[in-house]
Design a protein that fits this description.
This is Pyridoxal phosphate homeostasis protein. The protein has 10 helices and 8 strands. The chain is of the alpha/beta class. The protein has a single domain (about 5-215), classed as Alanine racemase (TIM Barrel), CATH 3.20.20. The chain has an 8-stranded parallel β-sheet. The model has no long low-confidence stretch (mean pLDDT about 95). Bound molecules: pyridoxal-5'-phosphate.
């Protein structure tokens, strides 16, 4: 099936829900992104800063670009002028830098706290306690140009369906707790970014509001020359 066909299939499936589709276009050529764009998709996720910056410069300006991969503090400045949502905030230090660059660009940047839910050592993210500590800190209260709009998580690789579902439910429960404790009156705190090609159905079952789907829309990843961190 073509990229457009794959997208339309996801769209009709997700239309029954309130879940937003982030088309993960990492390692895909701009032509493939344009195919999705021409089929109506406007929200794309990338995980490498340089690749995101290069594509943003050459593709239509009404695309909403999300950064979903690990972000180094020294690279925030490159995406701060345009990024729509950063899914991968995993430290207060990073959030402070995003705030600083947002001030420079006279904007407020929406962010998700990436929470560590997987049962493995390789994934980035905050532990539950660390996330709460960050939100309680005096420093966080001074950051006026970042807005935490929810949480993001990545489930374990190669887990059983039950374990994957349990990990997503843990994230949703944490979201609900943080909502009540820190954002009760803030309508903007509403996003739970979880679910990828292999597990988005389980994520939706657990309460996802944003799924990040790459390979099952675009097929195999093509570009290899960008350096991962
Ligand atoms: C690559 C990636 C995805 C998409 O993965 P697929 O399995 O291709 O759907 C989602 N989230 C993050 C953080 C990623 O790096």
């Amino acid at each position: 099936m073509s990229i457009a066909d794959n997208l339309l299939e996801y769209k009709s499936e997700l239309d029954k829900t309130q879940v937003e589709l982030i088309a993960v276009s990492k390692y895909q050529e701009p032509a493939a992104i344009m195919e999705a764009y021409n089929a109506g998709q406007r929200v794309f996720g990338e995980n490498i800063v340089q690749e995101l910056v290069d594509k943003q410069a050459q593709l239509p300006t009404d695309i909403e670009w999300h950064l979903i991969g690990h972000l180094q503090t020294n690279k925030v400045k490159y995406i701060a002028p345009f990024v729509k949502l950063i899914h991968s905030v995993d430290s207060l230090k990073l959030l402070i830098e995003i705030n600083k660059q947002a001030v420079k660009n006279k904007r407020v940047i929406d962010c998700l706290l990436q929470i560590y839910i997987a049962d493995e050592d390789t994934k980035f993210g905050l532990g539950f306690d660390e996330a709460i500590e960050l939100l309680r800190s005096e420093e966080f209260a001074t950051l006026k140009n970042v807005r935490i709009v929810g949480l993001m998580g990545i489930a374990s690789n190669n887990a059983t369906e039950k374990q994957t579902l349990d990990e997503f439910i843990e994230l949703k429960v944490l979201f609900d707790g943080i909502k009540v404790s820190f954002f009760r009156k803030d309508d903007y705190f509403k996003e739970v970014s979880m679910g990828m090609s292999g597990d988005y159905k389980l994520a939706i079952e657990a309460g996802s509001t944003m799924v990040r789907v790459g390979s099952s829309i675009f097929g195999k990843r093509k570009i290899k020359h960008y350096k991962t961190e």
